[in-house]
Amino acid sequence: MIQLLASKPFKILNIKIIVLILIISIFLTLPLWSSEYIISVFVLIFLYMSLGQMWNLLAGYTGLVSLGQQIFIGLGGYSLAVITVLYQLPIALGIIVGGVISILFALIISQPIFKMRGDYFTIGTWIVAECLAVFFSVWTYVRGGLGFNIIAAYKLSTTDIYYMAVAMGLGSIALVYFLLRTKIGLALMAMRDNESAAETLGVELYKTKLKVFLIAAFVTGLTGGLLYLSIAYIQPRASFSITWTVAMVFIVIIGGIGTIEGPILGAFFFILIKQYLYNYPGISMIILGTVAILTILIAPKGIVGTLQERYGFEILSIRRR
Amino acid sequence: MQIIQSLLNGILLGGLYAMVALGMSLVFGIMKLTNIAHGDLIIVATYICMVMAVQFSGNLLLAVLITICFMMLIGFLLQTFLINKVLDKGPEPPLLVTFGISITLSNILLLVFGADARYIPNTLKTINIVNTEHFSISAIYLLNFIVAIVVICTLHYIMKNTFFGRSIRATADDVTTAELMGVNTKRIYSYTMCLAMVISSIAGLLVGMNYTYYPSTGTEYLIYAFGVVVIGGMGNQMGILLGGIILGIAQLMGAYFFGTGYQLLAGYLVLLIILTIRPQGILSKATRR
Amino acid sequence: MTNDNVLLAIDKLNVHYRQFQALYDVSVKIKKGSIVSIIGSNGAGKSTLLNTILGINRPTSGSVTFMDQRIDGLPTNRIAAKGLSMSPEGSRVFPNLTVKENLLMGAYIPQARKNKEAMLEKAYDLFPVLKEKSKQEANYLSGGQRQMLAIARAIMAGPKILFCDEISLGLAPVVIKDIYKKIQEINDEGITIVLIEQDVKRSLKYSDYSYVILKGNIVMEGKSSELPVEEVTDAYFGENKYAIY
User: Fold this and answer.
1) Phi and psi (nearest 5°) for A87?
2) What is the pLDDT of residues A252-307, one digit of tens each?
């Protein structure tokens, strides 16, 4: 026993766990010792982290490059708005309904969308999102171009929203971490290496991809609801805008595609830049676009991926021991 | 009858959509690249045209010629220094690089020109070439169609009868063997992009003359271009024209039956349906190797 | 062998595919005007050698010298422009181009373009069936016709050396005989030929000088007329010669 405790891997594991607990404690107690502004920044960081984890799950692990995740953000946001404004029901219900509607919609479009391969799938998802943007602009039930003022959101304080965001962010990380350790995760690793080989071994490609797509839709829908809880005002064009997915893509590319730590780092980086350049919104996107392009050219595995390659540095390893 | 008018307009509008899609079809056919920045590049051309039109007091011909020069340069640089570097790195990097270019371009336009709607002033929108009691043909729609036919025929000629065109087609068939013939295939990719930019510049002018546009309009035209290319089948120039016509008709029929708010939606839905049931395109011929 | 007669010299070439070594210290000398054959079984390294000469692969070490100029490390299109041509394994005609367009692609390099009409006539003389089918798309040709097209295309630029990679693969004997006759005609015009073949007897019959390659090594070489078939076959199979017994 003593030998086990003194052994190197145990010590490293120990240190990792201690550091992790430390970091999590810092974030859990954040509202006690920092300003409202910083808390709101971290709301965004944790929510975008969740978005990034999901996009990474799709593109980095399953090979599904989706430019349509904004579908679920819009659906999540509108569910919240409709439930709380039109029906005066609690916020929690609005958020959950957002997730459920996202899964249902994902299920409906999965049939046609998954018939499209590669680039077709990518643009197909974008087209569906644009369809929704246009449709919600003319749909009178959701007040068309006027949108909603989500007044119920004002009842909550920034701190309340913060804890929900932290739960969402950490939850998404945990979800991806544990998902990859299940059978689905094993299937994904096999598919990533060689799809046809995986298929001959009994991996059901379609079902696996569908399950991951649905999970990502659900979480993105929930996150969308929370995002609009903090924004408190929803409009069709903005809520179904490609800009959401742009953020996800950048977070994952710059952080490191195909890694769990990547989107975490990417979210920090992204939100920090956006805050820094708050007064110059156009420039921030240009810079991010340029950085993303350069990253793909020079360090295609992103910050975390390159670190992993060069120094074998892994915090949250999903490899089975 | 109003429906005949809509149908006719849809056919002629198809010319515009064919022009929008032609550049993308060329690039996709040769490099197997889906250029997500394609729509934004067309809109960049539209903005440059607009500026040049002002500089040259409304001389649109001169404006588009200058625009072509700028766009060829931009396309050449993007292809040579960005896209060529990632073409052999797998399916995702080219997609993501062109996505990055798309975002960067549309935001540069936003920064420089602001978010207001713009248009390229021209008199053709108000002139009707044919004006009978049953239908009329507006000059601008006719121009769309004629330009599309001329450009498609010119492109076809270049592809069939010049060494340049043949080398592009040979590279599309077999890169290594083309190299064995002495073709510098990476440079051919850059030249193909230039050619696509020439076509897209003309498309940009037409877009600006037909409709108002914003820095974000690129997305809409990306979707049209992609849809038309899929409908028409890869590398098939006549198919592109047909694809454009189908899209044009779908849009205007949608507007006719459901109202103008549904014009965009009708077009998108038809594209999605075709993408689903026949992704290889309505007119494509499978190539034997 | 005097050095000024050597058109192409490959010296101690080593080629790797990732960790796998395909060629070990391969040295080959091709005399101007000759027909040289490189004999070996599947996977012995023949195509790798060819691809490396033509710049499709990069050598790990060693040199390729053509007309006293180093060409290793150059990109394929530059090497082609210097006068090296290949009929690739499997013909690899451009399927969506017509026969005539395929031939014209052979004359792509600037020096060759001015002669294109004359060279077309020559190609049609050599292989009359190509003239018949000149307007047909290449993917509708039969195997033998494609091979003829590939060879004709390779000489359109008036190259100094022509590499023929497995031109007999999948063809009927009578067609093969005809093609090899045309190869000799091409050689008579002064073009140096390098034949890559699996069939030992055929290689020895149609060439002046032969190299036998086994598992990436040259194990035998000599004047084709002086090499006994049985010894070549032994070298070709290596120690697997008795595997079937």
Assistant:
1) -115, 0
2) 999 988 888 899 999 999 998 888 887 776 788 888 889 889 999 988 888 888 88
* Residue A313 pLDDT greater than 70, yes or no: no
CB interface of B with C, residues 110-169, below 8 Å: 163, 166-167, 169
Number of folded domains that form chain A: 1
Q: Which residues of B touch C157 (CB under 8 A)?
A: 181-182
Number of domains chain B is built from: 1
- The token pair at C81 is 């422009």
Which chains have 3+ CB pairs within 8 A of B?
A, C
pLDDT of residue B235: 64
Question: Residue A156 phi/psi, 5° resolution?
Answer: -90, 150
Which residue in A127, A257, A283 is closest to B268 by CB distance? A127
Residue B283 maps to a domain? no
Predicted pLDDT at A3:
63
The total of other beta-carbon atoms located within 10 Å of residue C230's CB is 9
Is B143 within the bounds of a domain? yes
Determine the straight-line distance between the first and last CA of chain A, rounded to whole angstroms.
20
Q: What does the pLDDT read at residue B288?
A: 31
A173 lies in which domain range? 36-241
Closest CA to A306 of A256, A248, A253, A251: A256
Q: Is residue B269 part of a domain?
A: yes
Nearest to B164 by CA among B64, B287, B30, B25: B30
In chain C, the percentage of residues whose pLDDT exceeds 70 is: 95
Residue C78 scores a pLDDT above 90: yes
Considering only CB atoms, B34 lies closest to which of A59, A119, A292, namely: A119
Q: Which of A120, A282, A297 sits opposite B82 (nearest CB)?
A: A297
- What's residue A226's pLDDT? 94
The closest CB to that of C88, out of B180, B185, B289, belongs to: B180
Residue A217 included in any domain: yes
With contacts defined as CB-CB under 8 Å, which chain B residues touch A118?
Answer: 91
Helix, strand or coil for residue C5?
A: helix
| C-alpha torsion angle, residues A18, A23, A25, A31 (rounded to 10) | 170
Do chains A and B touch by CB distance (3+ pairs < 8 Å)?
Answer: yes
A57 DSSP assignment:
I
What's the Rg (C-alpha) of chain C?
A: 18
Across chain B, which has 289 residues, the per-10-residue mean pLDDT values are 83 93 91 91 95 87 92 93 87 88 93 90 76 80 92 93 93 93 93 95 94 91 89 77 90 85 83 77 48
- Answer yes or no: are the C-beta atoms of B222 and B17 closer than 8 Å: no
| A19 is a domain residue | no
ipTM attached to this prediction: 0.88
The domain of B111 spans 2-277
Q: Which residues of chain A have a CB within 8 Å of the CB of B97?
A: 293, 296-297
CB contact under 8 A, A285 and B265: no
Kindly state whether residue B286 falls inside one of the protein's structural domains: no
A-side interface with B, Cβ within 8 Å? 59, 65, 67, 112-113, 115-120, 122-124, 126-128, 130-131, 134-135, 137-138, 242, 246, 249, 253, 257, 282-283, 285-286, 288-290, 292-293, 296-297, 300
CATH number where B196 lies: 1.10.3470
Answer yes or no: is A100 within a domain: yes
Contacts of B189 in chain C (CB under 8 A): none
φ and ψ of A149, to 5 deg: -95, 115
Q: Please report, rounded to a whole number, the percentage of residues in chain A having pLDDT higher than 70.
A: 93
Please check whether residue A191 is in contact with residue A62, taking contact to mean a CB–CB distance below 8 angstroms: yes
- Does residue A211 sit within a domain? yes
pLDDT tens readout for residues A68-91: 999 999 999 999 999 999 898 988
pLDDT at B238: 81
* Confidence at residue A288, expressed as pLDDT on a 0 to 100 scale: 84
The predicted-structure confidence for C173-202, as pLDDT tens digits, reads as follows 899 999 999 999 999 999 999 999 888 888
